[in-house]
From TrEMBL:
Keyword Transmembrane helix part of the UniProt annotation: yes
Protein known as: Unannotated protein
Keywords: Membrane, Transmembrane, Transmembrane helix
Transmembrane residue ranges: 60-85, 121-139, 145-171, 178-196, 243-266, 273-300, 315-335, 347-366, 517-540
Claim: Amino-acid biosynthesis is one of the keywords in the record: no
Organism whose genome encodes this protein: freshwater metagenome
Signal peptide: none
Amino acid sequence: MYRRWLLLAYAFVLSVLVLGPALRPGYALTYDMVFTPHESLLPWTLGAGSALPRSVPQDAVVAILNIILPGWVLQKIALLAALVLAGFGAARCVRGPGAWVAVTLAIWNPFVAERLVQGHWSLLIAYACLPWIVCAASARRWPVVVVWCALAALTPTGGLLAAVIAIPAVLLQPGRRLFKAVWSLAIFATNLPWLVPALMHIGSESGGTDVFGLRAEGPWGSVLTAVGLGGIWNGEAVLPSRALWIAPIVGVAVCTLAAFGWSAFFRRFGRVAGIWLTVSVLGFGLALLSAIAPTLFVAITEIPGGGLVRDAQKLLAPLAILVAVLAGIGIGRVAEKVADRAVAPSLIVLTVVIPIATMPDLAFGASGRVSSVAYPSDFETVREQVGAGVGDAISLPWAAFRNFDWNGHRTVLDPMPRFLARSVVADDTLLVGRDGIIQPVGGDDSRAALVGSRLAAGEALTAFGPEMGIEYAVLAHNVAGPDSQAALRGAQVVWEGEELSLYWLGEPTATSSGSDLGLIVVVDILVALVVLASAVLVYFPRKRRFGC
């Protein structure tokens, strides 16, 4: 027990070292990570809207929790919990001194670094859930598995990765078929909050799949990049240390250690270990295929909701946490075979230090790239002026990302949709640099695409906004984007500030709420009841009548 507390403390300290300035009061705004003081529960946060449910149900969960806690506190809890759970979860799978190595490698690796800078906090939570799912499944604690799978399903990719490990683990374990069917359905149900809205978008296009494939880092090529657990599509999210010659050597060395740990891991976890390895190898293969043959991945967009997994490098998540576990077991086995017992602790310490020493720029919020700031008061003023109502708002200039000077000119997704108490129409077209060429990648929001085309044609928002349910326009100053003067012709100025200006376009003559909202709400309530029932069963004694 004492050793567990020490490992937990070490995971906590290492996580604090990684996050650094991101843990200060305020909001760490980087690429896709946007937290606000009070996100509202709106139809689009549940998946009812014209876009694919990429941030479902995470935004709805954040909006509900915002009733209790401010957004900046929720963000610190989410980031810290993701890293601590990953490190401590990996340690739970390892016996002996190698657990210290597992903690280090689970927290301090390129996959975590790049996803942190990219702002994929919910994917990191799903990544952290995987070892806990495996431990619970090997012990046949199915209610616990359902709860962990529900947490992983905050993001669609996380929910899929958790399900493809957990459901086979249920089905391949001995037991009554009825119990296995029930728990499998419960695990599957945790994905319904995003799956149902995704299936409602049959025919929605999500381009750019080839652009979002795994990207080789440095001159080492795609294979060594993937082995080293890097390769995110956004080159700006990659740490400079990934270009050093030592990076591929460390990646290969860690994987070699992991190979030494497989037999002991398999003896302990059996079939569940085999499932985890299979999913990890498949994820590695698909991620690598996205780099070697990107055109093959275009077919994914033809599948209903398939655009949700166009970022193939995400599929390295199971491998990244599995390598941490196996390397911890592997170094423990190597240390046991060393004749000089005084050398064994030195091997453990060296294996702990090397990953940190060879990627030092992950420390302190990726060298300040993930750091907390305060929103200017203009944002609160605009929120109060707009209030809640039937009409929507539109965010200008018409560009998906912002480089605010008050955010240190760090790139961040437009925060306005999460800041206002109304649904916001915003551009979702990405500009991706690949091989020296800037390639625009169209989004999957049909409504935003229509608005963008009319703005590009020079039409004023007052001419078509109200008939599309848009009542207000919010203009951000001093940020890059198309000129908004033509779009705001005839609009009435409601308020002007240093950072933002608010315009009234006219009384809306239509609403944007879809008729599918009722079905989504019913599904979400049923899933919540399933998860709640599973959480209650966690505290019951393990008896056969519960199937665990």
